[in-house]
Amino acid sequence: MKLSAAHKKFIENLKQKNRAHSTIIAYSKDIQQLIEYLEKKEGITDVEQVKGSYLNNFMAGLKEQGYTAKSISRKTNSTKTFFKFLKEELQVIKKNPADLVSHPKLTPKAPRILSKIEYKALRDAVKKDIRTYAIVEILLQTGIRISELAEIRLSDIELPEEGKEGKGVLHIPKRGSNEARDIPLNKSVQQAIREYLKIRPFSKKDYLFVTKTGNQLLVRNIRATLDKYFREIGLEGVKVNDLRHTFIAQHLERGTPIYIVSKVAGHKRLSTTEKYLEYIKVNNKEKQFELEEL
After folding, report:
1. Cα three-residue angle 262-263-265, rounded to 5 degrees
2. Which CATH superfamily is domain 116-279 in?
3. How far apart are CA 144 and CA 180, in angstroms?
4. Residue 87: how many other CB atoms lie within 10 Å
């Protein structure tokens, strides 16, 4: 089977498995880059011709080009997933050449956790931009991933009647390996969503966040907008995902039970949440989880 045909079938399979859109794009680009290398540098076009040495040469070349260990590790994962699919599901190869490829050693990087002064400064900066303010509040007050935020639909949100006390809920459906979960919405984020809905452009689509023309607001648009505000207020080294880090760290620091924070954040393993404990001072007095405002 030609590499290009195998690539196409691989992506179709990811879509059938309902993998996240951002994940599919990343896998597609990684495998396309690998195929271009195999065709141009190694002179092969069929999956049966691929050897482990070729894959290791590709990874070594990435290092020479200045790719970070994290980026190479991601491409290694994409490569292993691709060839596992070819062997176990398509059954077009007998041996998996990617078994001979190892992940580079990664040095864990401390999460960037915003201080109270920093996330208040961000709130102040976006206050007049109603859509972006709602985006910031949701990310900061729920800890969801940016890919999950872009996929929120109006039907995923439950808000109490305006002017009445009540709990709001954000439903995050199952996507790929990420399980479905319900996240309580505090008053701050409820209000931000209400204000945005008042000015939200008409759209035939059910997505919460849309462009002026009613199309879905994509991850890259959200990231670009927030990066602009980060620069404007001098938040150096801050990325969108750091709002998620801040949510997790702040609630652990306040004494919220770790298993609850892990569940709300959508971590697959409790150990992922536990790693944050290295970077914070924990209030040992546990309390009920009510998603207090940050």
Report:
1. 65
2. Intergrase catalytic core (1.10.443.10)
3. 12
4. 18
Collect contacts of 17-21 with beta carbons under 8 A, ≥24 apart. Answer: 17/176, 18/174, 18/175, 18/176, 19/175, 19/176, 20/147, 20/175, 20/176, 20/178, 21/147, 21/151, 21/219
| CA atoms of 211 and 200, how far apart (whole Å) | 9
Alpha carbons 195 and 89: distance in angstroms, whole number: 48
What digits encode the pLDDT tens for the residues 52-103? Answer: 999 999 999 999 999 999 899 999 999 999 999 999 999 999 999 999 999 9
Alpha-carbon distance of 218 to 174, in angstroms, equals 19
The pLDDT tens digits of the residues spanning 27-45 come to 999 999 999 999 999 999 9
Which of the four pLDDT bands, split at 50, 70 and 90, describes residue 164? confident
Task: Name the nearest CA neighbour of 139 among 43, 243, 54, 46.
Answer: 243
Q: Looking at the chain, which residues constitute the CATH 1.10.443.10 domain(s)?
A: 116-279
Asked if 208 contacts 214 with a C-beta cutoff of 8 angstroms, the reply is no
3-100: CATH topology is DNA polymerase; domain 1 (1.10.150)
Model's pTM, two decimal places? 0.67
Could you give the residue ranges of the DSSP H alpha helices within the chain?
3-16, 21-40, 52-64, 69-88, 116-126, 130-142, 146-150, 187-199, 219-232, 241-253, 258-265, 270-274
Domain(s) of CATH 1.10.150.130: residues in the chain:
3-100
In angstroms, rounded to a whole number, what is the distance separating the alpha carbons of residues 290 and 265?
Answer: 14
Cα separation of 282 and 271, whole Å? 16
Give me Rg for the CA atoms of the chain. 22
Is a pLDDT exceeding 60 seen at residue 286? no
